[in-house]
Structures are given as structure tokens and as C-alpha cells.
Here is the input.
Amino acid sequence: MNDFLLFAVVPYLAISCFLLVTIQRYRQRASSYSTLSSQFLENKRHFWGSVPFHYGLMAVLAFHFVGVVFPKAVLSWNSAPLRLYILEISGLALALLSLVGLLNLISRRLSSKKIRKVTTVGDLVVYLLLTVQIVSGIYVAVYSNWGSSWFASNASPWLWSLARLDPQVQYMAAMPLAVKIHVINAFLLIGFFPFTRLVHVLVVPNHYLWRRTQVVLWNYDRTKVRSGK
Amino acid sequence: MKPVPLYLSPLLFVLFGGVLQAQAPSEDTYELFKLSCVSCHTIGGGALVGPDLKGVEERQDRAWLLAFMENPQGVIDSGDPYALRLLRESKGQVMTQIPNYTKAMGEKLLDLIAFESELEKSQFAGLQISERPLTQEDVDLGKALFEGGERFQNGAPSCLSCHAVHGLTGLGGGQLGPDLTSVYARLEGRKPLASWLSAPPSEVMAPVFQKHPLDGEEVLALVAFLKETAEAGHEEAPANSFPFVLAGLGSTAVAFVILDLLWRNRYRATRKPLVEKSKR
Here is the structure.
């Protein structure tokens, strides 16, 4: 019964919340679809926080996505142990990359007075959930390996069963605690998503992933202004 | 005597059919039996780890069987002579308790065993796996299946995904499931291990292998490989994640170097360089 609550009720609640609130927020407060950039308040440490966090996390998410959509291809790739080890090491490295990035971002946010002023409760919730998510993911990768294979054999059919509205919770019921924490926390992230800064993920196209540096032009004598003359 | 009117025949079927023919057990009971019993018992196929259950109620009464299913260790500890005989026959292997066992569950399972015992051949009469001698080719195939080089026909993941075994190279096997170096000895031989592999009852494996069951030859090959591993007398080594973590940390460092190179001409900090430039 508890497994049904965790692996069927929680996911459906989270996804319903995600869909309904995302739409409602867009209709009523479209301009709030932003991260409320803090780069102009403090940006020295931004590079080593934002860049590894975002690219690491996107790659890890892409790995999960491939595991859900193409489980057979993953098992086929993993059929040679060397390829399995390469995939697992890459996954672990990307997760560590995003963890270092996240820790940098958290310390930057907490250590700068200006940024603390613009920090909301929602931001703190996001940081907490993301920390739990990444740390539990790394723990699972190290102590319940090899996750890329059993994700394809157990988690993928469970997620598809959710999509078919026929939840087969027995695939996940006997997984270790860390795996359960990782999975449930993922759905908490999805559920909280529309209430937080995470909505920036939905701003399509996410042009800031590949746009070039923006050029800032002044049409006045900037030397004078900056030097105070 | 007048013939029975046709419209009464369904009624008669319901009234007497049920008496003449024992009611077939439900799908759920079959699932429960498959999940909890077949890895150690057959119905009419001989003993595995546990005894053959064909006609079990002719050997012991239902009340005793229900008590034993509820608490096998308790009945053994009470000094019951029949339970002690079973224990001797299974070489000291105490029956595992069925998860969330209830008396109603036990009744249903005994009904199923009675029903299947009456059939000429029960579907649980044991494995259709060959008794032929195991060869070196079997051992090699078993190793390839374990590691994944040879894929299972029905698409099941390789054993290495979740299990370690002595002799793996590289980063070794998975840790989600137990080390299988001495599983052949633990389950006491070929038939019980083959039976276990044919319908893995563990909670993580059961749903996967019900959909992707192992083929008879594959089971035999794995048994051959695990037999050889167990008989070589290797110790089960404690799991060692250190090389994996080290490789992960090294790759992370490399990733940072790459990021640094990629962005060397780009904005690490947007405002400061602009301000600096504007002062020049």
C-alpha cells in the first residue's frame, strides 16, 4: 500500500500539479517565467557555478531520458562491460560536475548580501530539493550499481506503466532506500516546479544555451562616466 | 422420467458442476504460487530445495500445513517430528516465510496445490530443463551471458547489471543484488538453482523476468558457470567502489578543464570585464 502511495499516487499528484499550475501561472503571470537573474548583483563566481551545474544536469537528464525512451538500446550498449563502465563513469562525472556547480551557486547565494535580499523561500526549496536529488543520485550510482542497466529493466517499464495509467509499482517496490528517495524527490521537484524559478526551463527556445556573447554598446563617453571625471 | 428441460441445464451445471469439479484457483493465486513457491517446490516433479507438493494433504493435514506455512521455524523449534524430518531432507534449509502471509492466503495456496495434484500433469511438474552433463561450452556461454557479451534471447538484462561474481575484470559487477560467487553452493546444486533461475522470486527480479524469462539452455549455461565458480572455492569479495569513484572524480576534473578551455574567451563574469574595458 505504501509502495502504491509512493510510486503511483505521488507521481500522479506531482504531474497534475505541474500541468495545472504551470498553465495557470502562464495565463495569469506570464512575465514571472524567469529565474530573476542575479548575475548583475554578483557574478565573479557565476561561471564555476552556473556553467557546470547546468551542463552537468542537462546531460544527466538526457541520460535518464534515453533510459526511459530507449531501454533496449541502453541494454544493448551495456552488453559490453567496457561500454557499460564508460557510460557509468560519464554519468557519475556529469553528476559530480552538477554537484560542484550547485554547491558553488548555493554558497554564492548565501554569502552575498545583495543576492540574499532577492532570495525567496521558493529558491531555498529548489536548492534543497536539487541537493537531495543530486546527492542521492550519486549515492545510488556508487552503491547500487549498475544503474544504467537496471534503470532500463526496472525504472523504465514502471514509468511507462504510469504513462499508460496502469501503474506497475512492483518494479520499484523492493528498490533500496536511496533509490526510493531519488525517485520520490524527483517527483517532488516536478510538483514544486511551477511554483519556483525552475519555470525558466520552459522558456522556449532556450536560446541562452547556444547564443553568442551579447555585445553591450554605449552611445555616450563611457570613459568619463566610469572614471568619474 | 421426463428429460430435464434445457433451460435448467445452466442451473444444474452451477449446482453440480462445482461439486464434481474442484473450482479452478484464481489468477492471483497462480501468481502468488509462481512468485513464492516454484523456485523451491514442484507439484509432481520431484523435490528441489523443498519437497514435491503433489498430494501434500494426503501426507499431512491442512491445519498442520497452515501452521507450518505461518511459522516454519516455530514448528521446527517445537520439536515436531514431521517438521524435523523435512528439515533433514532439505539439508537444513528452513522454508522462507511468504511476505505478508495470511491464513486465507495459505488456504488458497493449498486449494491450488490440491487442484493441480489432481491433474494428469501440473504446470508446476518441474522444469523442462535437460539433465545432460554440463560442458566447458556451457561454462563459457554462461560467463558470456553473465557479463552481457551474449544477450538473453528474451531481452532480460545481463546478470552483471546487478550482481558481482569472482573473476570479473574492469570495475566488476553491480551491487544492487548479492554477489553470486557461491550461489550454487548456497542453493544446493543444479536443480534448485535452475529452478530459481527459471522463475526468479526476488522482488526486484520477479516483475522483469516474468516478462523476459530465461530460456532453458541459458539457465543451463548459467548453472554451469556458477557451478564452476562455486567449486573453485573462491571467497565472495567485499564490494569495492573506490576505482569507480576515482574514475568519476578524474573525469570530472577533465570536464572542468574542457569547460575552462571552451569558455576561455567568453564571459566568465559579464560585468567586470566590460567595466574594465570601458575604463581603458
